[in-house]
User: Fold this.
Amino acid sequence: MLEVRELSKSFGGLKAVDQASLDVRQGEIVGLIGPNGAGKTTLFAAIAGFHKPDAGRVTLDGTDITALAPHSICARGMVRTFQITQPFAKISVRENIMVGAYLHTADRALAAHQAEAVAGMVGMAGQLDQMGADLTVAGRKRLELARALATGPRLLLLDEVMAGLNPTEITEIVQVIRDIRDSGITILLIEHVMQAVTSLAERVYVLNQGRMIAEGTPAAIADDPQVVEAYLGHGAAKVLRA
Amino acid sequence: MSRQAVLCAVGLGIAVIYPLLAPNYLINIGMMVFFVAFIGQSWNIAGGFAGQTSFGHVVFFGTGAYTSTILQVTYSWNPWLAWPAAMLAGGIVGWIIAFLSFRAGLRGSYFALITLAFAEVFRILANSVPFTRGGLGMLIKADQRPINFQFKDPIWIYYIALVLCVISLLIAWRLTRNRFGARLVAIRENEDAARALGIDVFAEKVKVLTLSGAMCAAGGTFYAQKYLYIDPSIAFGVDKSVEMLLVSMVGGAGTIFGPLIGSVALTVINEVTRGLASVVPALKNVQPLSLVVYGIMLVLIVARLPDGLMGLFRRKPRHA
Amino acid sequence: MLDPQIIFAGVLNGLLAGGIYVLVAVGLTLIYGVLHIINFAHGSLLMLAMYAVFWLWRLVGVDPYVALPVVTAGAFIFGFVLYRLVIGRFSHGRDENVLLITLGLSIVFDNAALLFFGGETQTIDVPYAGSFVQLGAAFLPLPKLISFGASLLICVILGLYMAKSDTGKAIRAVAKERQGARLVGIDVDNIFAISYGIGIACLGAAACLLMPTFYVTPTSGNAFVLVAFTIVVLGGMGSFIGAAVGGFIIGITEALGGLFLGEQLGQIGISLIFILILLLKPTGLFGSRA
Assistant:
């Protein structure tokens, strides 16, 4: 469904993403992990059209979407969320979600109806009239998810939706993400914390210093010495095995 | 909801009956309230709803005033026909300024300053090119017949201002209830998030400035027809830009009734200082005193009341 | 075609005017560079300083050049207090809010001046106002030469102060990395107020240097606002060198614009430069920030 081929992006002299490739197939939940500063968010931003890649290609369902504007990528059914949540502060949760729902309809009643349905799906039905600015961290994360869902995507790019949440909240949102996938939406998610991904994703990519260093099932990844070293430092794999 | 509708109907009723009972100078003040609310609303649609703060909105006002006046004086158009042409011109100028500025990625203060510079360019041009008659300004020949958009009885110009104001309120009301308006607010609150949710931010911003420019230009023509005279500093001076911004900010930027409330508030201040001046002889010059008060209000409102005077009417305080 | 001698004289006069512009723009760019705010009240504050110079002369008989230390110090204090009490406290850290607050302040200052001082054009008669220095075909007014030299000297002193003094180093640290500066124990809010004060102090000095050849009215500030913004944008927001180079370019542009296009149309050059720089190269000639 999504194919990323040899994508590179530098800022100044710094290579944030270096020839990274990945595939996401219809109906999957795919994880993208890596230590802090590995370039995950940059890769996401480049896929979603927020940064123009220096090299490489992004295709969605066979069409080249490299460097299309974010709004046209969204219109083609791929939408991203932000790690640092960006609620529209001065309007209600309902109106926040309606902004997403308006992508495919100009009808206010229909958009409001869809917003309510999506709110129910992510567990925000009781908060529809709260202001965006008044939400807790967990609320903001859900709102990010809800707005993105309301655009009616086929592929959802989630950037650290679990960061900053407590264990109970994580359990809840993991269930929400599963439900979303079961409703037929494919998911690519970034996580900093490996455990969170292993319980969700069928396949995992590991990015380190801008390069894709491993790909496989969560179990295989956890045993990959390269991955362990990326997370724990040079030589760690040997120590662990001993 | 229905309470608000009743309030609106009562307000409109009073506004319609008012000139039948008021003396001419009060009718004139009422006319100015609605006129300033109208051009203030044109600012509010771009600056309040969409968050694109402009310091040079007068560029549209002057474009409208000069377009209809030149068509009328130089090319003998009927002013009623010149009016839509003026709006078209204002819309085109709005489109061009928005296209250039937003293509260059200008935001926030930079956008505010570039609009100021555009207004300045237009002012200097109007001062220098022959077809505006330069600094002399342009006089529209007095011929007080409705067909000429000139009226003997001030009541008619009052009603036209009222109609303009009501139309602008309806436009603002629509924006609170349709997709275009929702997108503008999203852009104001967070451009990146808006973009991620499929909004073509550039296109929407160009659209709103075009609409705002056309509205403001309509105000320019109205002004020219009321006073039958314009010159570069009236039509393109900073004062009008500031006035539009002030009434919206004071009343409540991004709210439907903000510009109207702001316009009423500023008129009240104006009249109070005028009254004060007649008692305290040291204050013979009224205009600056009320402007001092406006300036202080602007500072206080930015500091304490981000929703302007409208914020006082809301039960639930909103976050900045 | 114009006589090259006249053009030469025009360029020289533009350079001289540019000296004052540099001083005004350095104040503006310092405030931007450190606080990252656009001080829309810059022109109005210059106007107030010019009135201070005027009244010192009219009421006490103080020569503008003698008044320079006093007015500069007074302007610093005024700027410091204004930042502490109003701008810093009310803006909630939002860029548009600062713009609106400084706009509000400029409305207050302009109209308060009109209210208290009246709308008349005020000038100062100093004995040396009519003295000229001949340079080739150009006659240069002595006060303009003095203001040119003095404003450049002040800029150099300010530059040295920023480079060498502890406060200057702290200001530069805050300009570069305010979080880091806070972490190493610099009182960032105090540095903001000091920087704003220094920016306004530049206006105090500029007012003293301007008044012998210029006039003041409540709207005098308006003439300088767009000029100062253009210089700062042209040079690159926050860049000292940029402000200096920009000041001279704008001074010369204005002089030549007036020469070729006439008094009215000549002013258009500045606004056009401003627009074109913002549209085409918003970082300016020496700026690093977008």
Observations:
- The radius of gyration of chain C is 19 Å.
- Residues 4-35 of chain C form the longest helix (32 residues).
- Chain C touches chain B through 43 residues (CB under 8 Å).
